[in-house]
Design a protein that fits this description.
- The chain has about 425 residues and is of the alpha+beta class.
- The protein folds into two domains: about 10-310, Bira Bifunctional Protein, Domain 2 (BirA Bifunctional Protein, domain 2), CATH 3.30.930; about 330-415, Anticodon-binding domain (Rossmann fold), CATH 3.40.50.
- Helices cover about 30% and strands about 30% of the residues.
- Strands 3, 7, 8, 9, 10, 11, 12, 13 and 16 form a nine-stranded mixed β-sheet that branches. It has a five-stranded mixed β-sheet with strand order 18-17-19-20-21, with helices on both faces. Strands 4-6-5 form a three-stranded antiparallel β-sheet.
- A hairpin with a 5-residue loop joins strand 14 (about 280-285) and strand 15.
- It is elongated and about 80 Å long.
Length: about 425
């Protein structure tokens, strides 16, 4: 991609940022634009990140046998009444009427729709287990949308649903999904804590949240570094274990440390909560009818994008992990004037593209070196290659890795082969 063709407009400051890196840098770099409170447009840079994140999650879901579907956002009142959640959701549903006065909700989640699909197709133990997922837009009627992409009214989410004929099989798949989540967060270079949590309006028997420590976090987490056990503040309150003192680990007795965290994922053992109310049953090997057991497993993609920035940034720039960087390499022409030099840099761009590398080539004319480098900071590619009159006079290129900020001069003929991607 040539930067002269990229649809974007960076800014030096943004009034909406409130100082939080995860929203400030996204707005300054023109990754996103706020349309209304809690509603954001994703521009080319931002959508490139979301696409890569989507592809990463999709690969991992496919690897554990899940099949992808795409379900409607507009959901009829009837199925929410069947589950008993039409007036019980928190935050409340976005509700609307069509021209026939029939009521609908904009889906914040899809337990009801998924259960209805399964009900028409599962009737025997021979049909189980089944794993279905989607990556789709959700709507939450938040009373106060805050923190940029951390708490929005419209957002992209991966939700996976599993259907089982016994609790042991459900427990095994639940653990497999948790392991897969850790793999996803490792690829994003996020240190995640898996903690016991309350199930809230989703319901079910047990649930776990995946929390990333960050000063931007809205959630308080109590965690034992020795035993790797953690609990949300709500979980401890529910279990009546929290008082004015920091509680102790139930396993080793040490005091739990307190962390501010961002929630990036939540998994639930639903048991028969939805199958019982919506009559999703199967016939077992003995000819007896039973309720199908279910699990659901969510990841908020916008939250992950914001969390990556909250964790990976310095005072003036995003430091994207390679797995979701909008571009792997930023090739910058610092106002070369010699046509042969320009041709050589364009050859390097072509070689990088042929190797399957995502490269952004700053080919713009009449833009100062300072402005080019400042914008490169905001775009945040993991590797930056700079070509200037000074470096090319020595037949070299300057290569900088953003993560460690080390810059070195490499012979132009060896530049590509020396890249560590």
């Amino acid at each position: 991609m040539k930067q002269s063709k990229l649809f974007y407009k960076t800014s030096k400051s943004v009034s909406e940022a409130d100082g939080a890196a995860e929203i400030k840098f996204l707005l300054q770099g023109d990754y996103i634009e706020r349309l209304a409170s809690g509603v954001y447009s994703f521009l080319p840079l931002g959508w490139r990140v979301m696409r890569k994140l989507t592809e990463l999650i999709r690969r991992e879901m496919d690897s554990i046998g899940a099949q992808e579907v795409s379900l409607p956002t507009l959901q009829p009142k009837k199925i929410w009444e069947e589950s008993g959640r039409w007036d019980a959701m928190e935050p409340p549903l976005f509700k609307l009427e069509d021209q026939h006065k029939k009521e609908f909700a904009l889906g914040p989640t899809h337990e009801e729709v998924m259960t209805g699909l399964a009900k028409k197709r599962i009737n025997s133990y021979k049909n189980l287990p089944v794993y279905l997922y989607q990556i789709q837009t959700k709507f939450r009627n938040e009373i106060r949308a805050t923190g940029g992409l951390l708490r929005t009214r419209e957002f992209l989410m991966k939700d996976l649903y599993s259907f089982h004929d016994d609790s042991k099989d459900l427990a095994e798949y639940y653990k497999l999904v948790a392991k897969t989540y850790h793999r996803i967060f490792d690829a994003l270079e996020l240190n995640v804590l898996q903690i016991d949590a309350v199930s809230g309006s989703i319901g079910g028997e047990t649930s776990h949240e995946f929390m990333v420590p960050s000063d931007s976090g809205e959630d308080e987490v109590y965690y034992c570094n020795e035993c790797k056990l953690g609990f949300s503040a709500e979980y401890l309150q529910e279990k009546r274990q929290k008082d004015s003192n920091i509680p102790k680990c139930e396993k080793c007795g040490d005091k739990l440390s307190v962390e501010s965290c961002i929630e990036c994922g939540h998994i639930f053992n639903l048991g028969d909560k939805y199958s019982k109310s919506m009559k999703l049953e199967y016939v077992d090997r003995d000819g007896k009818k039973n309720n199908v057991l279910m699990g659901c497993y969510g990841i908020g993609l916008g939250r992950i994008m914001a969390t990556v920035i909250a964790v990976h940034h310095d005072e003036r720039r995003i430091i994207w992990p390679k797995s979701i960087a909008p571009f792997e390499i930023h090739l910058i022409n610092l106002n070369l004037k010699d046509e042969k030099q320009i041709e050589r840099i364009e050859e390097i761009e072509k070689e990088l593209i042929e190797k399957g590398i995502d490269v952004l080539y700053d080919d713009r004319l009449g833009v100062s070196a300072g402005e080019k480098l400042a914008e490169a900071d905001l775009i945040g590619a993991p590797i930056r290659i700079i070509a200037s009159e000074k470096t090319l006079a020595e037949n070299k290129l300057e290569i900088m890795t953003r993560k460690d900020k080390n810059a070195e001069l490499i012979d132009i003929d060896k530049a590509i082969s020396s890249l560590k991607l």
